[in-house]
Design a protein that fits this description.
The protein is an alpha+beta fold. It is 47% helix and 12% strand. The chain has a five-stranded antiparallel β-sheet, with helices on both faces. The radius of gyration is 21 Å and the shape is elongated.
């Protein structure tokens, strides 16, 4: 059980939950003092979960014993956690045994077939550490020739550090979305594999490089974002506005990442030219 991480996660999720998202009778009882913070109070979460206020306070102070599965389920309901967040909570509380490290396994043949059949749609396959395990020609033409990179550099995070100055062109206010998304993904993986040294080094490397990643890590977000808007600067195609979609490959911990564009847009036309060049 990671008491400190559990306490931080509960506090962050409580502070992020707006009072208007829970029953009025609980969050606005008669005679209640003025609310000082936008999130719920500890006593409100305790009331919603059916536990004592003192026990919940000890949980947020990293002083409570391991909560039971029933208490975790009640807290998940009280805090309106998603399925991903509930699993994360259970792992933090030690209800799910951790793995040793996120080792690469063989890429299923079906995954290679899927990448090939996507044809002109740039796509690659990543594992839980965001290592790029396989890709199609369109992805190499859009981003970089992955095959020419050392194996340890074939990683989404490290590529963003190395290539972002030349490849990224996000407008003001959008430049941190990718870093926050990666923070959510790696936060989940780090709880699954707390002893994975390579993963820890990757996290520290990106945190030192990106204040957006560091902020996202502190916020303890683990909710996945299925579609992320990306802004790229291609040496031949120019400025591109693309949707980066991530799909879980059934029966595995692998994800397919695809780049598409709004139909009829200049970026869609540019991707079509890219696809025609690799076919």
């Amino acid at each position: 059980m990671s008491r400190g991480e559990l306490a931080d996660f509960l506090r962050r999720r409580r502070e992020a939950l707006r009072p208007d998202q829970v029953p009025t009778a609980v969050t606005h009882p008669p005679g209640r003092r003025a609310r000082r913070t936008p999130g719920l109070r500890r006593e409100e979460v305790a009331d919603l979960a059916g536990v004592s206020v003192s026990y919940y306070e000890r949980l947020e102070q990293a002083r409570a014993p391991r909560p039971s599965p029933e208490v975790l389920a009640a807290l998940g309901t009280a805090l309106r956690l998603t399925a991903t967040e509930r699993e994360h909570l259970a792992r933090l509380a030690g209800q799910v045994p951790p793995g040793t490290k996120a080792d690469r396994g063989p890429v299923p043949g079906e995954a290679h077939q899927l990448l090939d059949r996507l044809g002109p749609i740039p796509a690659y396959l990543v594992d839980e550490r965001q290592d790029i395990l396989a890709w199609n020609d369109a992805a190499a033409a859009l981003i970089t020739d992955f095959g020419q990179l050392p194996v340890e550099e074939r990683n989404v995070v490290r590529l963003s550090i190395r290539l972002c100055d030349t490849l990224c062109s996000a407008p003001a206010g959008a430049e941190g979305e990718f870093a926050r998304q990666v923070a959510a993904q790696l936060r989940t993986t780090s709880v699954r594999y707390p002893a994975d040294r390579a993963l820890g080094e990757l996290i520290n490397e990106f945190a030192a490089h990106s204040p957006h990643f560091a902020a996202g890590w502190r916020d303890h977000h683990v909710r996945p974002i299925a579609t992320l808007r990306k802004f790229l600067r291609h040496p031949e195609l120019g400025e591109l506005e693309l949707d980066c979609q991530t799909l879980l490959l059934p029966g595995t911990n692998l994800q397919v990442v695809m780049y598409t564009a709004e139909p009829g847009s200049p970026s869609a036309a540019a991707l079509a030219r890219l696809g025609a060049g690799v076919e």
